[in-house]
Automatic annotation (TrEMBL):
Record protein name field: NAD(+) diphosphatase
Obligatory cofactor(s): Mg(2+)
EC number: 3.6.1.22
Lineage of the species this protein comes from: Eukaryota, Metazoa, Chordata, Craniata, Vertebrata
Pfam families the UniProt entry points to: NUDIX, NUDIX-like
Length: 345
């Protein structure tokens, strides 16, 4: 059934957002204008690449290095060093030109990502003193501040690897130097990297929050409800529909929290919200096709789950403890926000 959700459901549509704290606004603007120019001007982008910083991936696994204290961080290389590595491994320097633009450092250096999957992995690791790590694993190893860049780098490379042809003519498309678009040579159709919009929602009945798990989740992990937007839907409509479909509840109000780019399994644009249902109509009617379980959690139970590490190892024979996605996942932020709000009220 199509549900019409009016915009009055959103409690605070004009909520002000603290975006960057005390960051220097003018240098931020100049960096964004610089990146804009590099996307528009292939020659300027090629020049920037020669003195830029490059994040290497091997078959979409980012290169990390370990510090003496055992901490992992992103291994950014200078473009000149990448050329040296390519030369030593007998690869054409032109491979560098397949890099994609992913940002601009605080020191105004353009940042790129490059997949060297055609080179021998161990040889590159040895030359760089780093290790290529599966992106999910990298999320557990890296500092939270590094995850957006490593995610963006992988997502853009993946998009180019999987969108090399025009969907109308079947011909190979050509990318611009920055990698921000691909163009079909005969019909001029332009393709841009895309994210699929997803609503993720933490539902509350005023006293408890609703957490659910899919059968594919790691054992014991519960998360907020999530669902892809259907064509033409608003965030409010998707949220109401997904809650109705997955747990059979009628949402009464919702509030925007924040958003996140999520690379798994493809790029999703996660829009995170809080929602309430009436405590008089809070009985869960589970859609067993999508979810394995969904239950209400008290504040105490939620705080317990938040304290658990990912993949907890319980004693043999005991049921696995309930835990929630780690901090880099926006689900974790929603759950923490709810717990803080609940303590205040
Ligand atoms: N960052 C975070 O904290 C969290 C992120 N997520 C992410 O949110 C996303 C959505 O959650 P999920 O509950 O799976 O979504 P849904 O509840 O929408 O269910 C997924 C199903 O929807 C269908 N579908 C419709 N549109 C799309 C599309 N554009 N891409 C892929 N599948 C689509 C597919 O069905 P079919 O195959 O039958 O066509 C798919 O199996 C997932 O990518 C998940 O990784 C989820 C929870 C937490
Ligand atoms: Mg879902």
């Amino acid at each position: 059934m199509v549900m019409h959700c009016c915009s009055s459901m959103v409690r605070s549509p004009f909520r002000s957002l603290q975006l960057f704290g005390s960051r220097d606004c003018s240098s931020y603007v100049s960096r964004m204008r610089y990146l804009m120019r590099l996307k528009e001007d292939d020659e300027a982008c090629r020049t920037a690449l020669q003195s830029g910083n490059v994040l290497l991936y091997h078959k979409l696994e980012p290169l990390l290095t370990q510090t003496q204290k055992g901490m992992y961080h992103l291994h950014m290389l200078q473009a000149t060093d990448v050329k040296g590595i390519l030369g030593k491994l007998g690869k054409d320097e032109q491979l560098l030109n397949t890099s994609v633009l992913i940002g601009c450092s605080d020191n105004d250096a353009a940042q790129f990502s490059l997949d060297v999957g055609s080179l021998e992995k161990a040889a590159v690791e040895e030359m760089c003193g780093g290790v290529f790590v599966d992106l999910r694993k990298a999320f557990f190893l890296l500092k939270e501040k590094d995850t957006p860049l490593v995610t963006k780098g992988q997502a853009l490379l993946r998009w180019h690897q999987t969108h090399a042809y025009c969907s109308a003519t079947g011909e190979p498309t050509q990318r611009n130097q920055a990698g921000s678009q691909r163009v079909s040579p005969t019909n001029g159709a332009t393709y841009y990297p895309q994210m699929a919009p997803v609503v993720i929602v933490l539902v509350s009945d005023g006293k408890r929050c609703l957490l659910a798990r899919q059968s594919t989740f790691p054992e014991g992990m519960y998360s907020a409800l999530a669902g892809f937007c259907d064509m033409g839907e608003t965030i409010e409509e998707t949220l109401r529909r997904e809650v109705a479909e997955e747990v059979g509840l009628e949402v009464e109000s919702l509030q925007y929290s924040s958003s996140q780019h999520w690379p798994f399994p493809q790029s999703s644009f996660m829009v995170a919200c809080h929602a309430t249902v009436s405590s008089d109509n809070a009985e869960v009617n589970l859609n067993g096709v999508e979810l394995e379980d969904a239950r209400w959690f008290t504040l105490e139970e939620t705080e317990d789950a938040l304290k658990k590490k990912a993949f907890p190892q319980g004693a043999k024979g005991e049921p696995t403890a309930i835990w929630v996605p780690p901090r880099y996942a926006i689900a974790n932020k929603l759950i923490r926000e709810w717990a803080i709000q609940q303590k205040k009220s």
